[in-house]
Amino acid sequence: MTDLNKAMVETYRNDFLKEVEANVEEGNWVKMCMQCGVCSGSCPFGPDWEHPPQEIFAMIRAGKRDEVLKSESMWMCTSCYNCIVRCPRELPITHIMHGLANYAHRLGIAPKMNPTRRFAKIFWDNIAKSGRVNELELSIRLYFMNGFMKGIKTGLEMLPVGLGMLKTKRLNPFGLFAHGGIKRKGELHKMLKKAYEIEDKRKGFAK
Amino acid sequence: MARKEYSFYPGCSSERKASASNYMVSVESMCKTLDVKLNEIPDWNCCGASIGYAEGGELPRHIMNARNIAISEKENPGQDIVATCAACWLGTKETQERITHSGELLADVNEILKEAGLKYEGKQPVRHMVEVLIEDLGYDELAKPVKKPLEGIKIAGYVGCQTNRPFGVLGESFENPKYLDKLTETMGATALDKYEEKVTCCGGALAFSEPDKSYVQIKKIIESAYDHGADMIVTPCPVCQMNVEVYQGQINKKFGTKFNIPVMYYSQLMTVAYGGSAKEAGLDGNIIRATKLEEIAAKK
Amino acid sequence: MADIKIGAYICKGCGIGERLDTAQLTLIAQKEGKAQVVREHEFLCNQSGVELIKNDIANEGVNHVVIAACSRRSKAETFNFENVAISRANLREGVIWITPADEDKKEIVQEMAADYIRMGCAESAKMQIPRTNPNLGNNKRLLVVGGGITGLTAAIEASKTGYDVLLVEKSASLGGWAAKLHKRVPDREPYAEPMDTGIADLIKKIESDKHIKVNLNSTITKTSGAPGQFSVDISTESGSTATENVGGIIMASGFTPYDMNKLPYLGAGKSKDVVDQLGLEELAHAANGGPIKRPSDGKEVKSVVFVQCAGQRSDKEGELPYCSGHCCNTSVKQAMYFRNQNPDIDTNVIYTDLRTPGNGEDFYRSAQNKGVIFTKGKVNEVTTGSAGLEVKFKDLILNEDVVAKADLVVLATGQVANSGIDMEAQLLAEAAAAADDKAAKDAGEAAIERVEKPKGVSILNLTYRQGPDLPHLKHGFNDSHFICFPYETRRTGIYSAGPVRRPMDMAQAIEDATGAALKAIQAVENASLGRAAHPRSGDLSFPEFRREGCTQCKRCTVECPFGAIDEDEARYPVFNESRCRRCGTCMGACPVRVISFENYSVDTVGSQIKNIDFPDQFSEKPRILVLACENDAYPALDMAAMNRFQYSAFTRVVPVRCLGSINTIWVTDALNSGYDGVILMGCQKGDNYQCHFVRGSALAHERMSKIDDTLKQLSLEAERVKTYEVAITDIERAPALINEMAETIQKIGLSPLKF
Amino acid sequence: MTDVVATNETILVVGGGISGMTAALEAAECGKDVVLVEKNPSLGGRVNQLYKYFPKLCHPTCGMEINLRRLRANKRIRVLTLSEVKTITGKPGDYTATITISPRYVNENCTACGECEKAVSTEITNPYNYGMDKTKAAYLPFAMAYPPRYVIDPSLIGTPEAEKAKAACKYDAIDLGMKEETINFKVGAVVWATGWKPYDAAKIQPYGYDRYPNVITSVEFERLMDPFGPTGGKLVRPSDGKEAKNVAFIQCAGSRDRNHLKHCSRICCMASLKQSTYVREKYADDANVSIYYIDIRAIDRFEDFYKKIQADPKVKFIKSKVANITVDKEGNPILHGVDTEGYHRYDNSHDLVVLAIGMEPSVDASRIMPGVKADASGFIDIHATTEAVFGAGCASNALDVNRSVQSATAGALRAIQVINRVSRAEA
Q1: How close, in Å, is residue D194 to chain A by CA atoms?
Q2: Spatial contact of C751 and C674, defined as CB atoms under 8 Å apart
Q3: CATH number assigned to the domain covering C1-129
Q4: Do C397 and A89 touch (CB under 8 A)?
Q5: Least confident of A43-52, A149-158, B137-146, C109-118
Q6: Which chains have at least 3 CB atom pairs separated by less than 8 Å from chain C?
């Protein structure tokens, strides 16, 4: 259990709903769910959810903190927004799912090996560094995130794709070195740093 | 002086030698014909995309977009912000909506923007290119420059998610939007009257992290297009375009299908219909070649 | 009674002229129908036609009019003349629209028309123009029983309309349960917060209203009389009794909260900290905006669980099977008491179906927005653990058994109606005791004689022959059985309102009371004019009986569905005309046929049945008598005609007010006089009865079940007489049933009694 | 010119459905004069289009017959059909109502003999059956129509067909020269009973009412059961006439939904429970019914009815708001969603889907006249209304028939109170 996680358990005792309302993006909407399940039925990856959104809301109210935060489920969200537009109570479900995933990730209790979590991190690091996506770097890191051999294998599987992109000039072979990103990187880094400071303060992450 | 000017947010995938570079090429030709001027936002940065949430959280993600908006407001005053990428448009618009509804967020954002001597006002509407085409120009205007109607081409209008939900295009339904079909019809092509997977999710960013699950989605999207006899699929979104086009080989391997259907951008169709060359339409940028379009483009 | 002068008017319109020989019909009207004036007209319902009739009434002294044209259901307003007895011979829907136009059928079709002329004239001859009820009551004051929100509303609304009110409340103060509420569920936008009950103002209004007389600590020990002339004994606790006269009664005796001590498994009675919703209102009242404290030790409540449907919607012995309707909204409101005072209090509402209809949905959302947690679950047990109460329930969403700890548990128990004694139920109970059904029924009827001391406490103590209170409908509530007519009780001039009628919340009770006030006002107004109440509203006729003929058998008093008939000391029937609904059930019940209405009597119907032309047995022309309920079966036959569905031209249809008014002797007479088959068409009986006179159809079926013996005596086949339930929608079936009978007769041959 | 005798002691009742008829009759039977205005060619309203009522499963036309008899017998009620209230001006106890009357092209001479209908061949979509079939352009709205008088559809006017109809009428009842007229008269109080309309099902896009023929609304389903309805009383589905034995009911179709109607329409749960018995009535043990619900709202003794249906092995209850509907090659609707009682995913195929469609007021109360206030759903807010205009039935709230009649009776009394004040003042 990470210190941060310990701290949160301390602060909120058994009131997981309150914790979610305070720390999770759009978390204060969770209480508005009436368990109709339209979100659960609308998700394109639905069958892959161990706990669909509406059930997660019920679990939050029931105080099932670990089951929720350690779940792979939220990481299945493809951001298709089907749930949002159909919810009769207008819950911003997509964002709540993102928020829960992010929260679990920040607490360091999100499933370590979850590919989406890891891809998301690589992606963000990638853009945070240069301000723009470097697709080659991104894909190479992605392929190798499970280790070198696995990476070669994935790389080979994906080779046709890569070559196709290359042939059609939609992938830059020299991107790793040549890709510049934005000009005023320093400025962006400063801003992001500040943004993290404020967010951590607000969400009680700050040590 | 062009008839319309916009503050343009191209987005990462549109860069030279990036996954949607051909989208960009065709958009430029299309806008030239329509006499629409796009003023790129100087030094714009990534929108964070929807997948940015895990590491980015809230504020940092919003800051990425707030920066772009602020620069746009400073450098391209009085112009609507226009994005061609669905994710860029959604990300930017979402940030704007969120800030308008939260004074606290507005304060935070501006405090942070100070670091770069920027200020967020949020006066510029954030719009997708198709909105510009449909709302500012209108189908009639779009029809006028058509030189080579795309007769005899059957097209599956694949709208996907993010241009459609949660904001969508004015007056269109989330479940059965028609604008893409109208657009292709305007170009003289035939739009499928039935296309069940029109708004099915392609897996988005999870095509990278959860390829197998995404393939199931993509397969549905392509299959339905085939079932209704489409010659090609058209989309307004780079992520959709990429996912639906480039993984066809993988899917064939996995499911023993024989998919080989071109996936185009509306702007490519329009460029060709407006008499542009294959090059101007970025047709050479497609892994699965749209021969029918190339033929028309080749015609004098 | 002036001499009867019959004018018969034969219309030739709508094809009647083409299909029928009206000249012959004219002759029949004159010769057999004894009509002094007979006229044919091309188009009787147009102005000239109507003028013609009016002229004869004015100048020829015609006072009985027979309209031989379309069905009595069409052009009723056109053929409506003051102080004139009107009969209709249905030549259009009854003859030409249901028979083929073929030449070879012309003869039998003409015979059919001719018989309807005979029947129309015969009826007319026996009819009398009702001279209104001799025993009018002019008292227009209203008695309101019960001083809760329903009674108070009924009283104030009646007073606002200009009627005096006598309000009787058994407790020492007005306001009922509503006065015990801390706040009420909102009944207006934005449906977001509990609101003031407003009961205090209402009570002030009542007390300062000079048209309303309030009797507290009072109960009703005797109610006798009839609409417009009720006499009511009001007794106080002290024992004094005063007699008051009123014209109409609104019964708003409300409800008693279900006794939660019957729910020990939910902790009731075991812990002071388990309360029902009214219990919580007391706590909230006491707290008066401050923190609500739990009864056991006065500790501030930090967590509360609401158990919905406690002892309700249940099949368990002694619990309530129904849903009390208001409890979900009430728990939503009560949860807000806590959250509004302190947003950190855990409030969990455990429900199976959350029932907040209409704008209650906003109220529900508002509670969620305040952080009230709603859990779909089934509570199995509430126990008192060391750390307080433990609610053991199955979470139906997460599909697991859970225990919720709480400082306080609120049981959403139900409403039990204060509806007094249900004599009928007690009779049936006794009846059911008897072995097989037959015996049970007899027992049931016999028992009516026996139940002198019914169980339970009466509200109205009616001196009525059929019991001291309104009959109950279901679960002890005396709601109306009629969806279209929610105020129709079975005791004329007495209307129930509020939770005694159906479980309900304040908003509904207020609306209900207002409606009931109108009905009571309407009842006294009509009583003063001798007019019948629903469903024969406006009918001026009333039942009379030939005393010398009466055998005091009491069938009429027993069978009157509305308890209108009492017995005098000599055990003769006392009709209480203003209580009567004019259905004629008494007329059908009377074995000696001494009961009649002026415009609907043993004679008016009997003569129609007799006065047809019976062809000799060699002509192979059967005759089928159809006695059809005028509200459902007869319209069904009309609509069949509109669709040109055909039925046997040997049929003669006689509309009746209700199947209950059919005297079996008509049937035997009909068979004796030569009919080959008889069909009775009435409404659905049983639990979901559709008979607007409640018991009519059922009684007819009972009576007819005994006719087989009679048929045997006459050595007739049982198939010759059939009794059916026919709905107004049986547009295809009704004619089919008739044709079926025609075929049967074909098979078994004409009636031997023709010889 | 239609002349209406009315004074400021007359009650104007707007709407001739069960609520309006009740308000008019109850007031008239208290001795008050009433003008009853209905915009359709006949009284009866929506209940008349129902096959059966819950929970008794009796037929609405039965009560209609009684009400019509009460009406025929009562000289105090003046009925105006094809009429609409344009404006009401003045103050409580002294209003002037302006009514426009559309031409029926058929006068009082009509005997409903049906000759004109035989004479014409032009057909129009039949509003009585929600446009599911056609009717002759010279028509009687339905068998029990009141007044029992034919109507010539305006589309016929000026065509030779109209002349054919006229020629066919022996009674000079057809007057093709009729024009719309506008009349004014005084009234003292108004009972507003314009009722409800089904929510536009096409707006509920995930269910594809506008795309899939075999997705219909609950009101349309009622018409299928009428032996004289669009299918002759056969329970078959629109796309191919296949027997609809496996029927799904989707609750809260539009109701309890911030994207559509925010209120609960109250009747829909009971309506679907009732309609489940229709399927059983037609197909006995071959019937299969699935009811997809959020909460079953069967209050008071309706609970008995719910229990009865629950006990039916052929009726399944699924706690779920259906996510969306697709169709297979045979046109069978497939419902996708999650049963939230323990998380079970389903993709269920049915023959026919019935949307338990929500109720919205036919007339937005805020448009009636200044001083009449609407709640956020458009129902009359009696607490905020300052005029002597009293909401009755579904114009004031989402109500079932029974409660509508209560509300109408209460509305009638409130109107009478105004009238009596007037007459006392004048006495």
Answers
A1: 28
A2: yes
A3: 3.40.50
A4: no
A5: A149-158
A6: A, D
* C635 token code pair: 């319209």
For A133, C397, C694, D17, D264, the CA distances from D47, given in Å and listed in that order, are: 63, 37, 22, 7, 19
pLDDT at A131 over 80: yes
Q: CB count, 10 Å around CB of C638? A: 26
CA distances from B289 to B221, B286, C549 (A): 18, 6, 107
For C323, the token pair is 């849903």
C729 with D227: Cβ contact below 8 A = yes
Instruction: Kindly state whether residue B142 falls inside one of the protein's structural domains.
Output: no
DSSP state of C132: P
Contact assignment for A17 to C398 by CB distance below 8 Å: no
Buried b (16+ CB within 10 A) or exposed e, C143-167: bbbbbbbbbbbbbbbbbbbebbbbb
| CB-nearest partner of C485 from D144, D399, D405 | D405
* Interchain CB distance below 8 Å, B112 and A191: yes
Average pLDDT for residues C355-364, to the nearest whole number? 97
Taking only the tens place, the pLDDT of each residue in B43-74 is 999 999 989 999 999 999 999 999 999 999 99
- Of residues C428 and D332, the one with the higher pLDDT is D332
B/C Cβ contact: 3+ pairs below 8 Å: no
Return the number of other C-beta atoms located less than 10 Å from residue D99's C-beta: 22
Q: In this complex, how many residue pairs, one in chain A and one in chain D, have their CB atoms less than 8 Å apart? A: 66
Q: Do A80 and A161 belong together in one domain? A: no
A 22-81 near D (Cβ less than 8 A): 34-38, 40-42, 46-47, 51-52, 54-55
Distance CA B282, CA B25 (A): 6
Interchain pair B201, A78: CB under 8 A: yes
Q: How far is CA B278 from the centre of its chain?
A: 20
Interface test with A, best of B23, B25, B41, B43 (most A CBs within 10 A): B43
Cα D21 to Cα D45: distance, rounded to the nearest angstrom? 9
Best mutation site among D317, D343, D346, D347 for testing chain A: the one with the most A CBs within 10 Å? D343
Taking phi over 0 as left and psi of -120 to 50 as alpha, with beta for the rest, D270 belongs to alpha
Q: Would you state the CATH architecture of domain C543-596?
A: 2-Layer Sandwich (3.30)
CA-CA-CA-CA torsion sign (C321, C327, C329, C335): negative
How would you class B177 by CB atoms within 10 Å of its CB: exposed for 0-12, middle for 13-18, buried for 19 or more?
buried
Domain that holds residue A85: 3-112
Using a CB–CB cutoff of 8 Å, tell me whether C397 touches chain A: yes
pTM over 0.90, yes/no: yes
**Quick one: D312 and D346 in the same domain?**
yes
pLDDT higher than threshold 50 for residue C447: no
What single string gives the DSSP state of each residue in C432-477?
Answer: HHSSSHHHHHHHHHHHHHH-SS-SS--SS-B--TT-SSPPP-BTTB
From CA C160, how far away is CA C157, in angstroms rounded? 5
CB contact (8 A) between residue A52 and residue D336 = no
H/E run at residue D62: helix D60-73
Q: What is the mean pLDDT of chain C?
A: 94
Give the separation between CA C57 and CA C399, rounded to whole angstroms. Answer: 80
Total domains present in chain A? 2
pLDDT in tens, C127-137: 999 987 778 89
Does residue A95 sit in the same domain as residue A125? no
Q: Check pLDDT > 70 for residue C440.
A: no
Residue with the larger pLDDT of the pair C429 and C136: C136
Q: For the domain made up of C142-254+456-528, give the CATH fold.
A: FAD/NAD(P)-binding domain (3.50.50)
Instruction: Answer yes or no: do D205 and B173 touch at CB < 8 A.
Output: yes
- Residues B171, B122 share a domain: no
* CA D233 vs CA B80, C371, D189: distances in Å: 58, 50, 42
Chain B contact for D205, CB < 8 A? yes
